Amino acid sequence: MSNNQSNSIVVEKIKTFITNNDRFLLTSHVNPDGDGIGSAMALKHALLGLGKQAEIIIDGKMPQTYSFLSNCNWVMDVSSVHSTVEKFKAVITCDAPNIERLGLASKFIDEGAVILNLDHHVSNESFGTIDCVILDAASTTQIVADILRWLCVDLTSDIAESIYLGLIFDTGRFKYSNTTPSVFALAAELVIAGVKPENISGKIYSNKTYETVQALGVFLDSIELHCQGRVSTAQFDLEYTNSKTWPKVDTEGFINYALDVTGVEVACSFREVEMGLTRVSFRAKRDFDVNSLASVWGGGGHQKASGCTLEMKLAEAKKTVLDEVARRL
Ligand SMILES: [Mn+2]
Question: How far, in Å, is the centroid of ligand 1 from the Cα of 103?
């Protein structure tokens, strides 16, 4: 990452923020992914090592996939935290674009709290007291790794594993265009610090529920091509998302199959999760900007991966999205 002057000011602010506080709230967006969880876990390990107190509170259940992390019980769902818990005056948000996306976790933030906002998304709204939003970073955990270096925190194997989780998650296992030399350099450091890539990959990617693999079949079956094969769609209808098996399904990564089709530039996956409420995910190859596409409906993310929610039934949402995509091709 570049070291310009504004960067060094942020470094000093972060050092002071950590030094001057003893009790931290670590949080991420609603239903956090591997990067949000990895960032918060790495920070908690580091803060405890510095003799500080830190709690990880998120709005959403800890995904089972990440339960291999040691001390994974540190991650608390909002619903399991007593509402009388004293609010936090020092807060670190990981991988979240704004306060709203923290969901109910935001109720533990004191009104006058100092917030350190760590993120790498272009859609970040710079809502922190200190904003450390580095768009060149492949993952928020890559930013966390920098911060720990600034704080002279040693990479224990637990910290390294948490950072590695965010790194493989957000680079699609070192595959996306954000897989830069600095990503490999960090990965090398993490492996030296004790990460076992084969173990972690096995635990994350070869550890799916039967229901998830069955759902992948349904998803693949639903793939359609549009716009002369340049756009693909796939979907789960309301009946499926309300079925008994759905809670055991993790659709993470499914959309990549829709993007893998030769000639497809944009993949759109639709899930009608409630009557008249459809969640949409986008992935793109080449230069199609799906962050800007998702922002049409109040969503966001990255240029090549984003999402949004439409208050429409599945068929209507699909038509609306396809019309907009066709206009932008
Ligand atoms: Mn991320």
Answer: 17
Where b means 16+ CB within 10 Å and e means fewer, 42-58 reads bbbbbbeeeebebbbbb
pTM of the model: 0.82
Identify the structural domains of the chain with CATH numbers, from first to last: 5-205 (3.90.1640.10), 210-328 (3.10.310.30)
In angstroms, rounded to a whole number, what is the distance separating the alpha carbons of residues 80 and 201? 29
User: Distance, CA 32 to ligand 1 centroid (Å)?
Assistant: 9
Q: What is the pLDDT of residues 218-263, one digit of tens each?
A: 999 999 999 999 999 999 999 999 999 999 999 988 999 999 999 9
What are the pLDDT digits (tens) for 116-133?
999 999 989 999 999 999
CA of 166 to the centre of ligand 1 (A): 7
Q: Are 115 and 130 in contact (CB under 8 A)?
A: yes
